Amino acid sequence: MNKSFPIVSLVLALSSFSALAADTHCHVKQYEMGLRYQQQSAEIMALQLQTYKFAQQQLNENLTQRETNRKSAIIIDLDETVLDNTPLLVKDLKKCHDYTEWDTWGDWEKNGKPRLIPGAKDFLNFVNNQHITIFYVSDRSQENKQATINTLNRLGLPQVNSDHVLLTNKSKQLRREDISHQYQIIMLLGDSLADFAAEFKTKKPTSEQRKLVEQQRQKFGTQWIIMPNSSYGSWSHSKLKSE
Length: 243
Description:
Radius of gyration: 22 Å
Low-confidence stretches: 1-22
Order of helices and strands: HHHEEHHEHEHEHEHE
Number of strands: 7
Structural class: alpha/beta
Distance between the termini: 58 Å
CATH architecture: 3-Layer(aba) Sandwich
Strand order of the largest sheet: 5-4-1-6-7
CATH class: Alpha Beta
Mean pLDDT: 90
């Protein structure tokens, strides 16, 4: 009989327990299910393709109602609307690092290799072919603007230049207002309610946010197109209800 066997078994058991304990005490594990859905599910891909297909159909409708004496434009967010940044979020999660602190984001903007959200490029090429101006309005860092432009160019997206990529030198609302002085904005697309109107840029509970959505329900699916994002958002710490 190998007398070392009980010792080896004890070491393995303690190692397994330590790994389990570390995993249990990793508070960011709560993000895992949503992140898994966002990155790996076929359903999210179907939703993204479906949303962009619907956006294209609705854009055609909006074009028939535009003011003929004004130039037309769309405003589109970047992260989780055009760009899939989930590889960064997964790396942070594996290190038990809370990616919603955004302290790893700056390096990702400069050196990361995000993928395209399914359907985004086809939609943007369609918009470009309709001679509609595209503004990429994102809260990415102004300091990393050239890196973001390089990323968008690498992915082959249209109308990418310094004038059309508007990052955080001012609030999104002010950037939208600046655009509206010269263009008729016929559609906005984003993954967060704050991508559409300043009233959503609050720290109000989700119950209040839902009331605001109800008040603006006529704009969703017509002027405002929202993309699914289950990996992060203002809702992430909302309490679940059993009834």
